[in-house]
Amino acid sequence: MEITSDQINSLKEKLLSSKQENLNFQKNFSQEISGEKMGDMVDLANSNLSGKLETLFRARYVEKDKELNRALDKITEGEYGECEECDGPIAIRRLELNPTALRCVACQEKIELN
Ligand SMILES: [Zn+2]
C-alpha cells in the first residue's frame, strides 16, 4: 500500500465533511420543499413536482451516504485504496479527487466501456 496514514487521515476528514455536507444539503432541500408546499397548497401540479424532486433528492442523498460510508468502512478495515476489481492500489491523486473511488482507473474505464 502506497498511501501513508497522513494521507488516509486527510481523506477520512474529506469523507466525513462530505457526509455532513450531503446531510445539510438534504435537510435544506426538504425544508425548502415543505415551505413551498405550505405556501402554495392549491398548486397541485407544482406539489407533485416537489414530491418527485424530493424523492429524487432523497435517493441521491441515500446513494451518496452509502458511498461515503463504504469508503469509511474500508478505512476502518484497512482496505482503503485497494481496487475492488484487481486488488491493485488506487492512485492517491485519484482518491484525492474522488475519495469514494472503489476502482483503479484501468478497471473503472473497463466497466464504463461495457
Ligand atoms: Zn483495478
Task: For this entry, give a set of tags.
single chain; 0% strand; 114 residues; mainly alpha; 74% helix; Four Helix Bundle (Hemerythrin (Met), subunit A); binds zinc ion
Give an overview in words:
The chain has helices at 5-39, 44-77, 92-97, 105-113. The chain is mainly α and 114 residues long. The protein has a single domain (5-113), classed as Four Helix Bundle (Hemerythrin (Met), subunit A), CATH 1.20.120. α1 (5-39) runs antiparallel to α2 (44-77). The longest helix is centred in the first third of the chain and has 35 residues, at 5-39. The radius of gyration is 19 Å and the shape is elongated. It starts with a helix and ends with a helix. The relative contact order is 0.15. The structure holds zinc ion.
Secondary-structure blueprint:
Layout: H1 5-39, H2 44-77, H3 92-97, H4 105-113
Helix pairs in contact: 1-2
The structure holds zinc ion.
Averaged pLDDT, please?
A: 88
Task: Tally the beta strands.
Answer: 0
Largest sheet: none
What portion of residues belong to β-strands?
Answer: under 5%
How far apart are the first and last residues' alpha carbons, in Å? 29 Å
CA-based shape:
elongated
**What is the domain tally?**
1
Question: What's the architecture, going by CATH?
Answer: Up-down Bundle
Question: Helix share of residues?
Answer: over 70%
CATH class category label: Mainly Alpha
CATH topology group: Four Helix Bundle (Hemerythrin (Met), subunit A)
CATH superfamily placement: DksA, coiled-coil domain
The small-molecule ligands in this entry are: zinc ion
Low-confidence stretches: none
CA-atom Rg in angstroms: 19 Å
Count of runs of 4 or more consecutive helical residues:
4
Give the topology string: H per helix, E per strand.
HHHH
Which structural class should the secondary elements be placed in? Answer: mainly alpha
